[in-house]
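re: that chain from earlier
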Amino acid sequence: MRKTLYSSISPYKTLQLQVGNLHTIYIEECGNPAGIPVIFLHGGPGGGCTEGHRQYFAPEKYRIILFDQRGCGRSTPHAELRENTTQDLISDIESIRELLGIEQWLVFGGSWGSTLALIYSQAYPQRVRGLILRGIFLCRDEDIRWFYQFGCSEIFPDYWQDYLAPIPAEQQVDLLSAYHKVLTGGDETKQLAAAKAWSLWEARTATLHPDQTVRDYFGDTKTALGMARIECHYFMNQSFMQPNQLINNIDSIRHIPTVIVQGRYDVICPPRQAFTLAGAFPEAVFKLIDDAGHAASEPGIVDALVNATDQFSEQGAFK
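^ sequence. v structure.
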């Protein structure tokens, strides 16, 4: 029998932390204040956290820390691109750890959250007790092109037409640049239309079977604007990373207990990325879920992630 999410819980503490000159980030703590510290790194970039993200962890065993990354969710200013880089986010994670007085923690991240978890752990391996990674996103140029220019378009040609709609035909040879121009331009009507098209493309392709809940969340005006602007900003700047950075630096974290959870039918972050990571990191436990796509909410993915958090709370390792 597959495991399901733990029951819904509320934070026992919330706070706002000013980082840099512009940004204030929202942080919450849930579960057991004396439990194993775990930080949840959401996707996007620009996705924000939801109530369901608290539910992958046994609340009596974990001190669950969630935060909305710069410019999204309950962090302010919303959809702000200035002072918003990967290096800024790594600094924010360390600031949270220091603020909360945590020596080491479990790091849990999916999609862009897996990217950020790997970058953070490579920068601060001494602070990481373990890694739970889902829907691996290596953030290379070919990974961006697959989803936003050509590749996934061949699997969902109907949804692709809606993604193309805000962009004039003559600009579609470079969709990332065209979207960036609209999403950072001064026409708010066009900006919002582009943001919704961008965000719904991701929502419609995220699950193996259509899921209206996912589409409704991604289609929300605030969510769509934050995600589209911030994702496009990062991807236009190679996510502020060196080429193949995550694989090139993998030796620095191969001693950290790690589990990789990947949906076989993930078309947003195709499994070749997870296989590449697992090949460079043979010490990690690799779980390929045969009946799942990309979303963390899919039953097989939930089962694997909850099994991983349960195993770590009991043994400090994965199997």
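Residues 188-205 form the longest helix (18 residues).
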